[in-house]
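Figure 2 data, in text form.
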Amino acid sequence: MRTLIIDDERLARKELMNLLSKHPEIEIIGECANADEAIKAIEEHNPDLIFLDVQMPGMNGFEMLKKLEVVPQVIFVTAYDEYAMKAFEVDAIDYILKPVEDIRLTEAIQKVVKTNALEEKLESNPAIFEGRLGQEDQIFLKDGEKCWFVSLKDVRLFESEGNYVRVFFNQSKPLILKSLNTLEERLDHTFFRTNRKFIVNLRWVDTVENWFNGGLRMTLKDGTIVEVSRRQAARFRDMMSL
């Protein structure tokens, strides 16, 4: 995996590089001392993985990720434990506290390897989402170590997160490697693309009301509110004969 190390402390970068040298699956292609350097390096070299510090001069690690058009897999390496929840909100693979322990680093790399293996499995097995799937169909989902066999009638919402889609059902919301566009092609008319970010299960829609600029606003049975773009609102009205 082509890897970039981003940390404003030179000794921290050197120590991490020494630890990573024990892992042949990791190819270090560069190191950066701040977010500006990192953005340029990521755009130029397109790494598979970055080890990213949180607190850096100028932009912090989270602000840097927001500037990227394509975000590599991320492992945060930091001296601060208070950012752990925020790290996983941006779908980081792992969050390691300094000083980095060899065992802990190995665990994080193994997570990356398993994630990549899952991506390859999904790409090589498109049958998971082949055909037009409806309410009574079931799909297999895997996120990390957790697996589900889910009936689509229980899925209330799909949300795009970059190259992934978050699937909302019951109390779970796993992340799968699938674009929203591809998923839209696989689902039948009981699922509706409301905007660039969401597909909703129409069986879960409780109310629909007019919204700004010709759009609509849907409220799902669980209380989730999803806006329908003006373009998709026109399509929805035509489809539902409103």
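Caption note: The domain at 2-124 is CATH 3.40.50.2300 (Rossmann fold).
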